[in-house]
C-alpha cells in the first residue's frame, strides 16, 4: 500500500464510505466491525510492527467483508459509445453513411459487469474489423477473423 | 547460483517491452502513439470538451487538459522501480491503469532512437529528457528544464515518426471516443456527440483492492 504525504488522514470506515459504491453509512460501519485497524495510516504501522503478511491478511478480510456487503455495479452504469455516435464517426472517418445493425449486450463475467457494443455496416470493398476496449483502440482485433462486421468498444471492467 | 539484475532495465530491453506493451519492436511507434493519445484523452476529458492534436513527424500529442507540474511528473515517472498512476488503485472501465505507460514510452524511444530526448511541455515549463541505461543496471537520466510561454494542456514530443501503417489503433480510438475532437496532421475530426461513461470520480466497486504496486 502506498500513502502519499499531504493526503487526508482517513479512518478505514471513512475511506470505504467515501470511495466504494454501495458501502456508505451503516454498511461501511459493518464492513469495519471486525477490522483491528482504525485509520488507513495504521496499516503502515501494522506492517512495520507485525510484518507485511499480517497487514495484508487484515486487508483481505476487510475486502471480503466489503464484497459481502455490497452489490455489483449493474452493467447499465458502465455507459457505452452508442449507435448514433458510432454511425456519426463512421461517416466522419470513412465517409460511410452508416445504416448498420447495432447490438448492445450487457452482463456479468467473472463477477464483473460488462457491456459489448457491436456495429455492422456494409461498406463495400474489403471487410474490416475495428475493435476497442474501454474506449481505446486495440492493437489486434479482439475477435477471430471469421467475426463478421465492424466490432466496437467493449467497456467491461477488466 | 541465483542471478539477479535490476528490474529498471526491463523498461529498456525490446523483449521485455514487448511483454509489457503487447506489441513487437516493429510496432513500437504505434504503441507510443496509442499510449500518448490515451493519456491525452484522460487529461483532456477533465475539461468537458476534450481536444487532442496529433502530428506524425516527429510524433507530437497535445491535449487541452489542465496540464501537470513537470517536476512532480518526472519525480514519479522517472523512478523505474515503482509504478505511478492516478488510476492505479481503482478498477474502473477506463483506459489503462498499470502505471507504466510513460515508462514504457521512454523505453521504446530508447530502443528506436537512443540518446534522443523525449520532450514534455506544460504549465510554462518544458523538459527534454534523455535516458540511458548503463551496463551496471543504473539508469542515467538527464532532464533539461526550461521556462517557456505558458500554453494550455500538456504536449509530448518523441523523436519517432509515425506513418500511415500505424494509424489503425488511432482510427479505432477516434471511433470509440466520439465525445472528443481530434486534429491529426491537418485533418480535423470534431466531436460528434456525448458519451455516457462510468465517471472517473464515481465510487468504486470493491471488486479487488490492489494491495501492492511496487515492482521491486
Describe this structure in words.
The complex is a heterodimer of chains A (158) and B (216). By secondary structure, chain A is of the alpha+beta class. Chain A is 35% helix and 17% strand. Chain A has two domains: 12-69, no CATH class; 75-152. A three-stranded antiparallel beta sheet of chain A has the order 2-3-6, with no helix packed on it. A two-stranded antiparallel ribbon of chain A has the order 4-5. In chain A, β2 (101-109) and β3 (112-120) form a beta hairpin. In chain A, α3 packs antiparallel against α4. The longest helix of chain A is centred in the middle third of the chain and has 18 residues, at 52-69. Chain B has an eight-stranded mixed beta sheet. In chain B, a hairpin with a 2-residue loop joins β7 and β8. In chain B, α2 (28-44) runs antiparallel to α4 (101-112). The model of chain B is unreliable at 208-216 (pLDDT under 50). The chains are: A alpha+beta (158), B alpha+beta (216). Chains A and B meet through α1, α4, β1, α5 and β5 of A and α2, α5 and β9 of B. β1 of chain A pairs antiparallel with β9 (196-197) of chain B, so a sheet runs across the interface.
Determine the N-to-C terminus distance of chain B: 20 Å
Instruction: Classify the oligomer.
Output: heterodimer
SS-derived structural category of chain B: alpha+beta
Helix-strand sequence of chain B: HHEEHHEEEEHEEE
CATH architecture heading of chain B: 2-Layer Sandwich
Largest sheet of chain B: 8 strands, mixed
Number of folding domains of chain B?
Answer: 1
Quick one: how many beta strands of chain B?
Answer: 9
Spatial order of strands in the largest sheet of chain B: 5-4-3-6-2-1-7-8
CATH class of chain B: Alpha Beta
Would you identify the regions of chain B where 5 or more consecutive residues have pLDDT less than 50? 208-216
Computed CA radius of gyration of chain A, to the nearest angstrom: 22 Å
Beta fraction of chain B: 15-25%
Proportion in β-strands of chain A: 15-25%
Amino acid at each position: 500500500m502506498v500513502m502519499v504525504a499531504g493526503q487526508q488522514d482517513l479512518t478505514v470506515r471513512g475511506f470505504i464510505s467515501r470511495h466504494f459504491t454501495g458501502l456508505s453509512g451503516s454498511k461501511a460501519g459493518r464492513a469495519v466491525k471486525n477490522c483491528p485497524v482504525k485509520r488507513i495510516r495504521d496499516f503502515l504501522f501494522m506492517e512495520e510492527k507485525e510484518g507485511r503478511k499480517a497487514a495484508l491478511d487484515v486487508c483481505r478480510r476487510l475486502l471480503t467483508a466489503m464484497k459481502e456487503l455490497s452489490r455489483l455495479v449493474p452493467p447499465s452504469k458502465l455507459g457505452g459509445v452508442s449507435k448514433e455516435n458510432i454511425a456519426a464517426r463512421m461517416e466522419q472517418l470513412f465517409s460511410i453513411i452508416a445504416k448498420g445493425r447495432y447490438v448492445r449486450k450487457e452482463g456479468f463475467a467473472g463477477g464483473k459487469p460488462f457491456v459489448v457494443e457491436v456495429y455492422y455496416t456494409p461498406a463495400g470493398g474489403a471487410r474490416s474489423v475495428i475493435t476497442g476496449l474501454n474506449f481505446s483502440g486495440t492493437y489486434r482485433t479482439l475477435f477471430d477473423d471469421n467475426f463478421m462486421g465492424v466490432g466496437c468498444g467493449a467497456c467491461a471492467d477488466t | 547460483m541465483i542471478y539477479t539484475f535490476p528490474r529498471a532495465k526491463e523498461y529498456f530491453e525490446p523483449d521485455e517491452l514487448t511483454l509489457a506493451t503487447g506489441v513487437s519492436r516493429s510496432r513500437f511507434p504505434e504503441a507510443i502513439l496509442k499510449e500518448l493519445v490515451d493519456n491525452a484523452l484522460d487529461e483532456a476529458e477533465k475539461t468537458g470538451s476534450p481536444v487532442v492534436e496529433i502530428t506524425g513527424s516527429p510524433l507530437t500529442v497535445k491535449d487541452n487538459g489542465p496540464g501537470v507540474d513537470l517536476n512532480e511528473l518526472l519525480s514519479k515517472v522517472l523512478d523505474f522501480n515503482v509504478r505511478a498512476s492516478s488510476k492505479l488503485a481503482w478498477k474502473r472501465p477506463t483506459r489503462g491503469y498499470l502505471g507504466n505507460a510513460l515508462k514504457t514510452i521512454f523505453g521504446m524511444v530508447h530502443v528506436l532512437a537512443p540518446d534522443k530526448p523525449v520532450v514534455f511541455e506544460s504549465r510554462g515549463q518544458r523538459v527534454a529528457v534523455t535516458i540511458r541505461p548503463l551496463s551496471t543496471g543504473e539508469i542515467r537520466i538527464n532532464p533539461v528544464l526550461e521556462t517557456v510561454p505558458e500554453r494550455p494542456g500538456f504536449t509530448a514530443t518523441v523523436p519517432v515518426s509515425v506513418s500511415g501503417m500505424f494509424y489503425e489503433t488511432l482510427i479505432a480510438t477516434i471511433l470509440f471516443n466520439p465525445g472528443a475532437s481530434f486534429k491529426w496532421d491537418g485533418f480535423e475530426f470534431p466531436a460528434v456527440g456525448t458519451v455516457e461513461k462510468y465517471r472517473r470520480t464515481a465510487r468504486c466497486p470493491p471488486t479487488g483492492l490492489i494491495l501492492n504496486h511496487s515492482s521491486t
